[in-house]
Amino acid sequence: MGAALEIRNLHASVEGQPILKGVNLTVKQGEVHALMGPNGSGKSTLANVLMGNPVYEITAGQVIFDGVDILDLETDERSRMGLFLAFQYPVAIPGVTLANFLRNALNARRKEADPKDKGIPIPAFRKLMIEKMDMLLMDHDFAGRYLNEGFSGGEKKRAEILQMAMLQPRIAIMDETDSGLDIDALRIVSEGVNKLSGPELGVLVITHYQRILNYIKPQFVHIMLEGQIVESGGPELALTLEEQGYDWLREQQNDASA
Ligand code: ADP
Ligand code: MG
Q1: 70 in any annotated domain
Q2: From atom 19 of ligand 1, which residue's Cα is the shortest distance away?
């Protein structure tokens, strides 16, 4: 049985302003979901709340991951449980190479599993990293560069996919992984995600363009408007959005509340 991330009636505010207004969504290992919605609808807020960003105040609801309510857990505990968030705007960490960053992250994970663990031996680490870089068609020099410092948009996203490949999360949330990517980078990043997809990985792709969904094929598509998921369906829903925009959903919402 795979693990599930279950978001139940989640409400969250920032600076006293309600942003999420009752989100319900379940993502299981092995499933690919897309969450779409116009700018400002609360998609990034949801991603941040799921990872435990303290700026957001949870005012109601639960998030259950693998049977555990994670809302009281620290971000690193969530990450060690197998939740992964690819940020919309990855931060640079000057002075820390991508390889060092990855090795520390892996070692923290191993230590959690076994407090006596001495860390992954460097040759084994290098072998694993090179295997994953090759899978993602990444230049090996990349590993020696300082994390995200001077990385192009496409390189940042690739570095994140590499982190995902190394850490092997059970559920990955990708917030606008497509933003700022040219078509080639978009294809490479999407292919990376597709290569990592499988029965062990559940993915929630957050996007406001249909474009990335030409490459990453979700089984489920959800639409967020003003802090709620107002429509869920299959891949055809993304095509309807592409053709008709969000207005029909807004009208449907207004009719329902009238
Ligand atoms: P999306 O990712 O769908 O574009 P966001 O979750 O980024 O939407 O934003 C939803 C709303 O919450 C917006 O009105 C935004 O201004 C507000 N918001 C989100 N994060 C913050 C924050 N840290 N401080 C203040 N307002 C925020
Ligand atoms: Mg966003």
Answers
A1: yes
A2: 45
pLDDT (tens place) for every residue of the chain, 258 residues total: 689 999 999 999 999 999 999 999 999 999 999 999 998 999 999 999 998 999 999 999 999 999 999 999 988 888 888 999 876 556 666 788 999 989 998 898 888 888 999 999 999 999 999 999 998 888 999 999 988 788 877 788 888 889 899 999 999 998 876 566 777 777 877 888 899 999 999 999 988 777 778 888 899 999 999 999 999 999 999 889 888 888 888 888 888 777
CA of 128 to the centre of ligand 2 (A): 32
Q: Which atom of ligand 1 is nearest to the CA of 42?
A: 6
Range of the domain at 209: 4-91+169-257
| Contact (Cβ atoms closer than 8 angstroms) between residue 33 and residue 27 | yes
Give the integer Cα–Cα distance in Å for 88 and 134. 24
- Nearest-CA residue for ligand 1 atom 16 is 40
Q: Which residues line ligand 1 at a C-beta cut-off of 6 Å?
A: 14-15, 19, 37, 39-45, 55
3-state DSSP assignment of residue 89: coil
CA separation for the pair 102, 145 (Å, rounded): 12
Is 180 within the bounds of a domain?
Answer: yes
**pTM for this predicted structure:** 0.90
